[in-house]
Amino acid sequence: MSDRPDFQPSTLVIHSNRSYESQSNSILFPIHQTATYIHESVGVTKGYGYSRGANPTVNALEQSIAAIEGSNSALCFRSGMAAISTLCLAMLRAGDHVLLSEVIYGGTTRLFEQVLGNFGIDYTFVDTADLPAVAAAIRPQTRLIFAETPANPTLRLSDVKGLADIAHAHENLKLAVDNTFLTPLIQNCLALGADISMLSTTKYIDGHNATIGGSLATHDEKLVERLRLVRKSIGTIQAPFDAWLTIQGVKTLPARLAMHCAHAGEIALWLEQHPRVAHVNYPGLDSFPQKALAVKQQSAFGGMLSFELNATTAESLLFMKALKLCTCAESLGSVETLITNPATASHCDLTPELRARLGVSDRLIRLSVGLESPKDLIADFENAFEAIFGN
Ligand SMILES: *Cc1c(COP(=O)(O)O)cnc(C)c1O
């Protein structure tokens, strides 16, 4: 389909990898569950040698991801963390320095603090929403700004174009954005100037809690080749069956995202007017301090929100427990509505002082709004309010 670049993303995710060459004409791209490929004669292959290097089903998923990223190519990995690890091993060497968003996925913090730091890679956390602070934190050795926006779980936004301009004012400094919360269909980081867009495909791209996976996309073809080499060297490529499941997920991504955003907007408004709710973080609300930036760099407001009740932490946790439809589980971006308490889950490794400064209070509740009817979700909240507070 690369001869039809004029298609819209919602068409491309369905048709970018239609194959007509299979023996049966099956409408779905087949799962090439194979380790190796036959040489037609010694040294002659159809471009595939061994599935640690490349695999046709993984390649088909990569075409779908490239279609939504607007890049020539994308690479898929066994997990979001495998994607970030491969990126760092491909780009960095001992003595290099990285700037990380101070509110960032816990696994990314762990990777730098407990793994990459042991190999002489230096890093600093910075509030990437504060552009002058980012500019001031750059050192001669800084090679990468790795930012996440919206931040989890406060949804604080960083200006992607502003960060790209700062990075590109320096030689050899690239901007990578973890765009897992919005996907390129809502926030196209490459178009906004980022050098690398990273996704945990585990979340919205798969959307069904069926797989773990990750992806990287860039316009820099030299970096793509380097990433391929490192992925092959360390063995972080996506597995064919997981890629196949993810291909099915991404076909409905545009439709699912529209519903996630609509439902989250409705629930955010409902929660905000509720007397038991102290505060709601959702970029689509007029009360959200950075709504203008959301409107500038996003085409919608996403499916994630967080809120605090007018209640103690203990009561807030009981309220979560009383919910029946909202499922208490880590992860996000799936058809099921998932609810977490970041202070005891994703952000439990942070000190209480840092959590307080970042706005991650002990009672903060994070919601990944799923595709259930908002009417039923609101009824679930009403029942939980009734059970815990009697109203
Ligand atoms: C889940 C997640 C990751 C890590 O992805 P895995 O697929 O779990 O390895 C990275 N960044 C963000 C924002 C995530 O939500």
Question: How would you describe this protein?
Answer:
The protein is of the alpha/beta class and 391 residues long. It folds into two domains: 4-251, Aspartate Aminotransferase, domain 2; 254-389, Aspartate Aminotransferase, domain 1. 37% of the residues lie in helices and 14% in strands. It is built from 13 helices and twelve strands. The protein has a seven-stranded mixed sheet with strand order 1-7-6-5-4-2-3, sandwiched between helices. The chain has a five-stranded mixed sheet with strand order 8-9-12-11-10, with helices on one face. β4 (142-148), α6 (160-168) and β5 form a beta-alpha-beta unit. The longest helix has 21 residues, at 253-273. The chain is globular and about 75 Å long. The mean pLDDT is 95. Residues 79-81, 105, 107, 148, 152, 178, 180, 200, 202-203, 212, 214 line the site of pyridoxal-5'-phosphate. This is Cystathionine gamma-lyase. It holds the Pfam family Cys_Met_Meta_PP. Keywords: Lyase, Pyridoxal phosphate. One of its GO terms (molecular function) is pyridoxal phosphate binding. Its cofactor is pyridoxal 5'-phosphate.
Sheet of most strands: 7 strands, mixed
Q: What would the average pLDDT be, to the nearest integer?
A: 95
Q: What is the number of E strands?
A: 12
**The level-1 CATH class of the largest domain:** Alpha Beta
Morphology: globular
Structural class category = alpha/beta
Poorly predicted tracts of residues: none
What is the CATH topology of the largest domain?
A: Aspartate Aminotransferase, domain 2
Small-molecule binders: pyridoxal-5'-phosphate
The helix/strand series, from N terminus to C terminus, equals HHEHEHEHEHEEEHHHEHEHEEHEH
Number of domains: 2
